[in-house]
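Repro:
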Amino acid sequence: MSEPRSALVSQTPKPSLTYQLVSNLLVFPVFRGLFRGSTRGLEHVPSQGPLVVVANHGSHLDPPLLGHALGRPVAFMAKAELFDVPILGAIIRACGAYPVRRGASDREAIRTATAKLEDGWATGVFLDGTRQADGRVNQPLPGAALLAARSGAPLLPVAIINSHRALGSGSSLPRLVPIQLRVGEPVPAPSGRRRVDLDATTAELQRRINSLLDQGLLRP
C-alpha cells in the first residue's frame, strides 16, 4: 500500500504577498493593538507539513486571527455567507479561506481541504461549524477528524479566548477586550474513518479546547 501523499510532503507553501500584506498591515495591528492580543503555546505548532488546526468559534474575528497568529499560513473553511460581507469577505479570501455551505454535506469543500493538506498546508476547521454564543465547543462535528483520517495529518487544538465577548453573535460593534489564542499539543489522526473512530477523536478535541478555555487568559 502506498503512503498518503501528505506523508511525503516536507515543505510548507510560502504565504502570498497579499497574505503578508493583510497580516502585517491589518490583522496584526488589530489583534495586537486594539485587542491586546497574544498567542501561547506556539512551541506546539509544527513548522512544516500538513496540519489540521481545530478551534472553537465565537466571533467573525476568528478566521483572520486563526489564519495569522500561529506563525504559519492557515487555510480554513468558512461559511459561504461570510464571503458576501463587505471587506471581511475580501480579507478572509486573501487569508486562504474557502467557502462551505452550512447545513449541507459540501464534498467540494472537503476535497479542497484535503488537497491543501496534501500540498503541506495547515487547514483550519471550527469544531462546531458555526459561532457559539458562549465561545465554547458545544456540539462538535466530525469534519476535522475526517480530514485528518483522509490525509494522515495531525490535529492541533486551539482555544480562542474572549472573541465571543469582543464581537459575538448579534453584536454590531466590537468590545475592546483582550483576546488570546492558546495552542495545545497535537492530537494524532484517527486510526480509521469509522464513525466510532471519528467521534472519539472529535470528543478528545472538544475536551482539550474547552480545557484550554477554562484556564482563561494568561498574563504576559
